[in-house]
Design brief:
Layout lengths: L4 H11 L5 E6 L2 E6 L2 E7 L3 E5 L5 H5 L4 E3 L11 E4 L7 H17 L4
Antiparallel strand pairs: 1-2, 2-3, 3-4, 4-6, 5-6
Length: 111
């Protein structure tokens, strides 16, 4: 299993409540886009990748279980954070992070 299918199902339920959502397998995981813009994805087996406004990244990185998104040793990917599975067991926390990614993707110009 390349990604946590149960986590993906939980995220999918939250994301598909919105218009313009497309789900796609990518990078060994699954991602959700709104109007062609990446909102979030389940990657690295059981981690959630979340798109954020650049000005919100530093504050998010101060939270427990939140890390920069990118390959080890490489420059981090701007505008995204990675959430550890420990922070995703609670449904309300998962919904908060999914909402954050969905809100950011919705603000961007459709592709």
């Amino acid at each position: 299993m390349a990604y946590d299918e149960q986590l993906a199902a939980r995220v999918s339920d939250l994301m598909h409540q919105r218009p313009g959502v497309r789900e796609s397998k990518m990078f060994g995981g699954v991602g959700w886009m709104i109007n062609g813009n990446m909102a979030c994805g389940v990657m690295r087996h059981d981690h959630l990748m979340v798109r954020m406004a650049p000005e919100e990244i530093d504050e998010a990185l101060r939270e427990p279980h939140v890390h920069e998104f990118g390959r080890p040793g490489a420059k981090p990917m701007k505008g995204f954070v990675m959430i550890d599975p420990e922070a995703l067991a609670d449904d309300a926390e998962l919904e908060r992070w999914v909402e954050c990614g969905a809100a950011r993707a919705s603000e961007l110009r459709p592709k």
